[in-house]
Amino acid sequence: MSDIGPCLCGPVAVRGARPGDTLEIAIEEVQPGPWGWTYAARGIATNQLGQTAPLRPFLGTVGLAPRAGEQVCPWTPRGSGGNMDCRELVAGTVLYLPVMAEGGLLSVGDGHAAQGDGELSGTAIECAMEEARGAAHAAAGCGGGRAAGEDEAKLQGKSPGWWAGALGCD
């Protein structure tokens, strides 16, 4: 068995989305499952002391299909989204991604209950999602990848450059 990327739902075609358009993805609700996991070094990190961490659930992967024939790595962000692991993409956020393929072909997944600024150690509190709800629609023209939400400053260029810089149009 090989690990070919995070667990995703999709792709879902969005009526009217065509290459060159921008897809507006409104993240309305994200509810994590009852448990999550993480790891450190070679072992499983568990807390037997009852210590807690605040939850701020988000989907680590929100992305559209690449151009026809283009091969992409499922573990990294790309021009049309992908595995961004951006903790600012919580409920109430709107993400704008450039459409590269007919229908956009939106996929979401890779649930996180909480995460720091990036996954430098390779993980967060990974979890299943009980519910993830949103809406998507296409708009003409491509303004590049951008987001709007509760923390506008972090979403507008002060987020880690590895995700903000990965979004854009050719």
What does this structure look like?
- The chain is mainly beta and 170 residues long.
- It has one domain: Jelly Rolls (Sandwich), CATH 2.60.120.
- 6% of the residues lie in helices and 40% in strands.
- The chain has 2 helices and 11 strands.
- The chain has helices spanning 152-158, 161-164, and strands spanning 8-12, 22-37, 39-40, 43-44, 58-63, 77-78, 81-83, 94-98, 106-114, 125-139, 146-148.
- The strands form 2 sheets. Strands 1, 2, 5, 6, 7, 8, 9, 10 and 11 form a 9-stranded antiparallel sheet that branches.
- Strand 3 and strand 4 (43-44) form a beta hairpin.
- It starts with 7 loop residues before the first strand and ends in a 6-residue tail after the last helix.
- Residues 41-46 and 157-170 have low confidence and may be disordered.
What value does the average pLDDT take? 79
Unreliable stretches:
41-46, 157-170
The arrangement of helices and strands along the chain is EEEEEEEEEEEHH
Strand content: 35-45%
The H-level CATH homologous superfamily, spelled out, is Acetamidase/Formamidase-like domains
CATH domain topology: Jelly Rolls
| Head-to-tail CA distance between termini | 36 Å
CATH class type: Mainly Beta
Work out the radius of gyration. Answer: 16 Å
Number of domains: 1
**What general form does the structure show?**
globular
Please identify, by name, the CATH architecture: Sandwich
Residues in helices, as a percent range: under 10%
Annotation, overall tally of beta strands: 11
What's the helix count? 2
Biggest sheet descriptor: 9 strands, antiparallel
Structural class: mainly beta
